[in-house]
Amino acid sequence: MVTLSSVARSMGRRFVGYPKPYLSQFRTLLLQSTSQCVNLRRLSNSDSGIVEVNLDRPGVKNAIGWDMLRGLQHSFEAISRDSSANVLMIRSSVPKVFCAGADLKVGTGKMLSYACNQLFVSIESTGTRVLDHLSVICFDWQERKTMSSSEVQDFVNTLRSTFSYLEALHIPSIAVVEGAAFGGGLEMALSCDLRICGEDAVLSMPETGLAIIPGAGGTQRLPRLVGRSVAKELIFTGRKICGRDAVSMGLANYCVPSGEAHLKALEIAQSINQKGPLAIRLAKRAINEGFEVDLASALALEEECYEQLLNTKDRLEGLAAFAEKRKPKYVGE
């Protein structure tokens, strides 16, 4: 069995404890740094099986550059190899922002001027300023070098394949969205199975304002969630929506008070973690793959997935626990 602990040891990395306030609230967390701005954490004790990917690039509001992208790739690959992982949460360590999008260095004064005009955004419905010093596509002001067209294409292609890898993970994934999720940041959230928003969440696909389109899956995953007409309006106009609107249109599963999205996501992750791991993985496969084919083929897929569970130890344990009126102890076999 390959675990995150063994992966970390093989990489020569050291686990450290999480800050004390979290130890009492969420038990113990172990940390593996996969890059300077992406941390992979594994909960333990009764929450063993829940893993977290933390985005931590505060200087540019978690804009995704090459280092963060490599960190995401390494994290998702480690999770894919970890047979003990049952559910993934992706969250931000940076206040008031989930992810500001792709960090594409832009050198033209016109585009920089456009970005500056987007630095301060407020939501009239709440009357609160929810973003500070945030551009539609975040720029690293210490590095003004412009990406060439081929470099941008290579980056976006890698971003798209990374999000597709995330979407195809065998375990459920939950995006914890507090604050801004713009462009590539929203596309990453769309690649997750579930999305939990705080009331201060602001979601947008602003790319057409910069004469490009969402290139990391946004034009395909968004309409599959909210319908073609709504997706077209959001992408054509770049309109920003709040967490409550995201829930009403089917883009998010829950909207909770600001600062409580992680608690809600953890509650859902704990519920998933208590279920039969093999059943969860096959349910995800049946839903995802069945959605892309005709009904007859989808029902055949469901039958195939169901049959794979009939002779498992977990199924027998579930039946025994039900008969004995106790909680089942699933082992993923």
Automatic annotation (TrEMBL):
Alphabetical GO biological process terms: fatty acid beta-oxidation
GO MF: hydro-lyase activity
Alphabetic keyword roster: Lyase
GO cellular component term, pick one: mitochondrion
InterPro entries given in the database record: ClpP/crotonase-like_dom_sf, Enoyl-CoA_hyd/isom_CS, Enoyl-CoA_hydra/iso, Enoyl-CoA_hydra_C
Gene3D superfamilies: 2-enoyl-CoA Hydratase, Chain A, domain 1, Lyase 2-enoyl-coa Hydratase, Chain A, domain 2
Top-level taxon of the source organism: Eukaryota
Family: Belongs to the enoyl-CoA hydratase/isomerase family.
Protein name per the record: Enoyl-CoA hydratase
Lineage: Eukaryota, Viridiplantae, Streptophyta, Embryophyta, Tracheophyta
